């Protein structure tokens, strides 16, 4: 009997608003669940990592796919380093570089330095050439360190609602190998 793949959405700072592709994914499929953090605007790495662990408790991890955006990608990498679970896969979209000056503006705790250990599961890093939160070179460095396939989609900003990525069918297509 084939088990249903469960997709867990891991947003970044501020969660993902109503026009964000993560929200569209969640609305369009009952097998997509958003992992809700207690604090979206002043996140603490240890708390965010533990929230992922709690959300996945009792799940068949071999059938779990994480879909992360921005700081959510960094959280997934920290979670993998902390717990070492093998899951089916992770789509890591626009991983933000917590070592840049951008993060001085936000009250985040414990996310740096960037986790650069190999992930114990298959993953894809999706990046843009015009993302203000990560340079293409750093995104490539993260993908290489994490053992992820790199998917460069050109001039796409931070790959969020502000850059025109609402329903984002191309993103859904990137999940097909894990579906």
Kindly list the characteristics that best describe this protein.
16% strand; 179 residues; alpha/beta; six-stranded parallel sheet; Rossmann fold; 6 strands
Structural summary, described in words:
The chain has helices spanning 21-28, 45-56, 71-83, 136-146, 169-174; strands at residues 6-10, 32-34, 64-69, 89-93, 123-127, 149-152. The longest helix is centred in the middle third of the chain and has 13 residues, at 71-83. α2 (45-56) crosses α3 (71-83). α4 (136-146) links the parallel β5 (123-127) and β6 (149-152). It is α/β, with parallel strands linked by helices.
Quaternary structure state of the chains depicted: single chain
What low-confidence regions span 5 or more consecutive residues with pLDDT below 50? none
Number of H- or I-type helical stretches? 5
Number of domains: 1
Q: What is the CATH architecture assignment? A: 3-Layer(aba) Sandwich
CATH superfamily: Alpha/Beta hydrolase fold, catalytic domain
Q: What coarse outline follows from CA principal-axis ratios?
A: globular
N- to C-terminal distance: 15 Å
DSSP strand (E) fraction?
Answer: 15-25%
Helix share bin: 25-40%
CATH fold-type name: Rossmann fold
**By helix and strand content, what is the structural category?**
alpha/beta
* Rounded average pLDDT: 94
Report on the biggest sheet. Answer: 6 strands, parallel
- CA-based gyration radius: 15 Å
Supply the CATH class.
Alpha Beta
Order of helices and strands: EHEHEHEEHEH
Major sheet: arrangement of strands: 2-1-3-4-5-6
């Amino acid at each position: 009997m084939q088990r249903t793949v469960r997709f867990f959405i891991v947003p970044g700072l501020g969660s993902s608003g109503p026009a964000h592709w993560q929200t569209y994914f969640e609305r369009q499929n009952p097998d997509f669940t958003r992992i809700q953090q207690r604090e979206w605007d002043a996140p603490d790495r240890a708390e965010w990592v533990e929230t992922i662990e709690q959300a996945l408790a009792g799940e068949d991890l071999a059938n779990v796919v994480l879909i992360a955006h921005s700081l959510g990608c960094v959280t997934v990498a920290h979670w993998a380093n902390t717990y070492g679970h093998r899951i089916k896969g992770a789509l890591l979209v626009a991983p933000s570089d917590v070592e840049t000056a951008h993060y001085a503006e936000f009250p985040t705790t414990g996310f740096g330095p960037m986790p650069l250990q190999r992930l114990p599961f298959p993953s894809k890093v999706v990046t843009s050439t015009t993302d203000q939160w990560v340079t293409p070179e750093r995104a490539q460095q993260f993908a290489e360190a994490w053992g992820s396939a790199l998917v460069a989609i050109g001039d796409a900003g931070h790959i969020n609602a502000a850059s025109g990525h609402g329903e984002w069918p191309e993103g859904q297509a990137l999940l097909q190998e894990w579906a």
